Amino acid sequence: MDITKKIDEKEYDQYVKEKQPKSKLISECARAFWVGGLICTIGQLISNFAKDIINLSKDTASAFTAVVLIFLGALFTGLGIYDVIGKYAGAGSIVPITGFANSIVSPALEFKREGFVLGVGAKMFNIAGPVLVYGISASVFAGIMYLIFGGA
User: Fold this and answer.
1) How far is Cα 144 from Cα 142, in angstroms, rounded to an integer?
2) What is residue 8's three-state secondary structure?
């Protein structure tokens, strides 16, 4: 058998179609939609609890909700639950703020055996670091522009 046999484009396309996994786009989108929606619903319930039961202002309730969701995302990542949710829901678990918490905690857990400073501290912001740098830089730039041009 000649392993250097050349195949034409049609044969190659047929080979790729046979070997390529079947698309599960509809079911994956549905899972991402309902899990992401569930996370957002839990966030709304926390916000309603903070406003109605604890009597926090709207702004304080929003901050409270963000802190609770980040805490839950970090906790579930530490317990290994968020990985299971992520494998099932894909982007539905990554897009909400809980996904941001997961992106910070996961590298920290992975490198904890290297110590708190060189492991956890240095690796914690591998993924989220650029997002934080961009956000902080953009806010500083916006603040300088506001200072120069004043509030209109």
Assistant:
1) 5
2) coil
Q: Which residues are CB-neighbours of 92 under 8 A, at least 6 positions away? A: 31, 32, 33, 34, 35, 36, 37, 39
pLDDT-derived band at 34, boundaries 50, 70, 90: very high
Euclidean distance between CA atoms 137 and 52, whole angstroms: 36
Could you tell me the two tokens for 152?
């209109």
- Which structure tokens are listed for 72? 């839950």
Q: Record the tokens describing residue 121, joined without a space.
A: 């501290």
Amino acid identity, position 107 = P
Scan for tokens 């250097």, then name that residue.
4
Are the CB atoms for 63 and 82 separated by under 8 Å?
no
| 51 in Cβ contact with 58 (< 8 Å) | yes
Per-residue model confidence as pLDDT tens digits over 44-89: 999 999 999 999 999 999 999 999 999 999 899 889 899 899 999 9
Q: With bands split at pLDDT 50, 70 and 90, how would you rate the model's confidence at 104?
A: confident
Q: Closest by alpha carbon to 71, among 100, 40, 108?
A: 100
